[in-house]
Write a structure and sequence with these properties.
Elements lengths: L3 E2 L5 E2 L3 E3 L6 H14 L3 E3 L7 H10 L8 E6 L6 H15 L6 E4 L6 H13 L6 E4 L3 H8 L8 E5 L7 H10 L2 E5 L13 H10 L3 H11 L3 E2 L6 H8 L8 H8 L14 H9 L5
Parallel strand pairs: 3-4, 4-5, 5-6, 6-7, 7-8, 8-9, 9-10
Antiparallel strand pairs: 1-2
Helix pairs in contact: 1-2, 1-9, 2-3, 3-4, 5-6, 7-8
Amino acid sequence: MDDITLNNGVKMPPEGFGVFQIPGPTQCEQAVLDAISFGYRLIDTAAAYMNEQAVGAALKKCGVPREELFVTTKLWVQDASYEGAKAAIQRSLDNLSLDYLDLYLIHQPLGDYVGAYRAMEEAYQKKELRAIGVCNFYPSRLADLCETVDVIPAVDQVELHPFFQQEDALALMKEYGVVPEAWGPFAEGKFGIFTHPVLTKIGSKYGKSAAQVALRWNVQRGVVVIPKSVHKERIEQNLDIWDFQLSQKDMEEISGLDVGHSEIVSHDDPGFIKMLHGLKIHD
């Protein structure tokens, strides 16, 4: 598993461990400790996940030197402004008990995210953030941001899985030198992904599960993946994707699964946008 080099020269693991929707600080801390013990070095959290402190506790206990870990967290909509982002960065550093973050992302393309990005650029120049980027910036938003800012985003974390492949978005990211990172690489369990006949059939050739095939398909497209689980055996299995390679025929067969849209979220839905703005994670 070779690191990916971001557009500023920083090295990033191509697979990490996500902690979205892991309930309770004790379970989250243990899951992160398990992941690190199996070899994960990229840990992905967010202010909105409300578990930064649990992640920080695990990082402190894991026994792995800080410089060998790659820690990502994210700015929530509530803090999407210049001053809001400055405070939010410090809050996340405090919650995680860290002196710097390896990657800091704008979680949603909402509010004054350009102002927030300016604050992130300043923190990047001060080396509080080793790399900065965005999440959920669909092509038009990403192009606008890249044409506006001084520091091109290093990463765009978006929904990417066999049923929503976003080839146009990947092409634009490549044009700007932005690394794609997949949230929801298992489609949040939709489409029967864990037992899907196409993925299962392909996996049987390599002694791999449908889930492992889905992850391997994404990394062969140059996409960083951050699968999440609280089960030790699955955490370990999700990392076991680096000893096989899908053929071109396999890749083409999986490309036929694309439905061309998300069935998880819609940034075109005003109700969804209002809900995101209404979600307050701190006073």
